[in-house]
Amino acid sequence: MSTTVTGPDGKLRCRWSGAAPEFLDYHDREWGFPVSDDRRLFEKLTLELFQSGLSWRTILAKRENFRAAFSNFDFEEIARFTQRDVERLLADEGIVRHRGKIEAVINNAKRAGELVAQEGSLAAFFWRYEPDAAELGTPQTASRSETSVTLSKALKKQGWKFVGPTTVYAFMQAMGLINDHAEDCVIRAKVAQARKSFTPPGR
After folding, report:
1. How far apart are CA 34 and CA 177, in angstroms?
2. End-to-end distance of the chain based on CA atoms, in angstroms?
3. Which residues of the chain have pLDDT under 50?
4. Cβ–Cβ contacts within 10 Å for residue 54, how many?
5. Percentage of the chain exceeding pLDDT 70
């Protein structure tokens, strides 16, 4: 099966971008472009955490609800959430009401604050895990990698939860740690160009 589909402008894009109307803008403007903002990084990892076992369409459709429910992913504020907040979130029909995942996000917010204190920023930490080009295979043929396993272990060692290698790999794709757009996708070159002008934090 081809990894691309013809977009509304007649140009080829990753096949998944045509699976739902809301996917196109996310694919063209966000997925794979390098991110250095800590709050956006925490949001991306959190959304991938919630996506585990569900469809990405479900998560993307609820994204604004997640932002409202989780203080726009301000992890310093989320770290102060109490049991009352957990119950509030479990009653929020606009998000995925999964106690384990909700509690994991609050836990991860605390761990994020600790990581910032250690490393200066989440971005400085995550960008240290940019894979070597030799590790990368054909785009969109993997759901985990050697680096995603390593990063997953590093996060778990620091107490993060719901950050298995597959979730971490999806996060790496989303935040631009790898460019996993299909080789003939029109956006792949745009992501590559954005990456050339991007200086990873801490370098």
Report:
1. 7
2. 40
3. none
4. 13
5. 99
